[in-house]
Structure formats: C-alpha cells, structure tokens
Design the sequence.
C-alpha cells in the first residue's frame, strides 16, 4: 500500500507569507492547438517541499547534489498531536532508531489553507532537534510549515548536520494505523536550495 503525504499542486496554492503565489495555467488546448500543455510558476517552498541547508546557511551544496539515498529510508512516525512545543522525551531514544526518516504527526495540516496555518503552528525545541542529530536522522517530515520560528535555530542546527526538512505534509495520521513503512521523498532534479516534492509512504507490513 502507498500513502500519499503530499498536497496537490493547484493554481493559487496557499503561499508562505511574503512568497509569490503559485500560478498553474493551461496554455494549450486540444481543440484549438491540437495538443494540451500547462505552465507552472512556483516557489520551491510552496506546498509539500524539502528544505536543503542552502536555504538558511551560507553553503555551496544545492539540494540536487545530495545522494538520492538521503531521500529514501525507513520511517518512524511520532504522534505529537495537540502539543504546542515538541520537546525531548527519554522514550524517543528507543522509539527513533538511527538513520531514520522521522515523521511528526501534529494534526496541524487540517488548517492548511487558513491564515492560522502559517502563524499558529507547533515548534520543535532545540533539545528535540539535538536528539535527531544524535540519531543521524536523514530527514524530518512535518505536517506544518516549519519546525521553528525566527531566528530559526532549529532549522540551522538540523542543516548544520545535513538533516533535511520536509514541510507541509498531509494525511500523516494514516501512518499511525500501519506497521513498518518506508518514506520516499523525491525532490525535483533541480539546481536550487530546496524543492517541491512528491512524498509518499510505502507500507511494508
């Protein structure tokens, strides 16, 4: 079974405050042009996407230069629904094996499309981020727009340790109902700091 964790890309996809709005238009029509075509203008941080270290650090590595195996791996989901601050708990030491892709279920994705989605989201503490670093996590996946707020210390800590951040996932609650799963989070093959992505979970049992 495959679970799609990605928001659909549509015209007018809700942008992060200050970013340009997504424009998706049909430019050619089968009855007049004899073929169909669409054109997309999108910020790399709209909808479901993956942040690379270049997003907030002065580093030369584009997202496409990361090895593909960084975007695919065994997944661990942590249910933190209802928490406004996601902090370190000793039980996470055993719950999160090394080199995982960690997915956080906060339930915040239900607000996607509303103004509060981008302002009232939960945040990760530095202690929780340090746990992800110790566990050599490949990527942390969030059903919210960011792991933190200004001055973005969690972003910077994760990036400094080459941990990728996937934001704006949806349907994460479905992972709570399955056993083992693999995350496949492929960005575009694009020379950019970050990329929109199609992120899915492949259920293994």
Sequence:
């Amino acid at each position: 079974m495959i679970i799609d964790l990605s928001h659909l890309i549509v015209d007018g996809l809700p942008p992060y405050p200050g970013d340009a709005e997504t424009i998706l238009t049909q430019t050619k029509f089968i009855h007049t042009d004899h073929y169909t075509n669409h054109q997309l203008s999108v910020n790399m941080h709209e909808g479901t996407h993956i942040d690379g270290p270049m997003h907030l650090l002065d580093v030369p590595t584009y997202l496409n230069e990361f090895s593909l195996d960084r975007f695919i791996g065994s997944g661990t989901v942590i249910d933190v629904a209802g928490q406004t601050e996601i902090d370190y708990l000793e039980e996470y030491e055993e719950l999160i094996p090394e080199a995982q892709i960690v997915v956080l279920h906060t339930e915040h994705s239900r607000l996607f499309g509303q103004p509060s989605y981008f302002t009232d989201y939960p945040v990760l503490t530095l202690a929780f981020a340090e746990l992800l670093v110790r566990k050599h996590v490949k990527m942390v996946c969030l059903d919210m727009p960011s792991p933190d707020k200004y001055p973005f210390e969690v972003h910077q800590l994760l990036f400094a340790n080459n941990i990728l951040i996937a934001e704006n996932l949806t349907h994460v609650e479905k992972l709570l109902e399955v056993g083992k799963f693999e995350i496949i989070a492929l960005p575009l093959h694009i020379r950019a700091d970050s990329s929109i992505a199609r992120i899915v979970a492949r259920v293994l049992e």
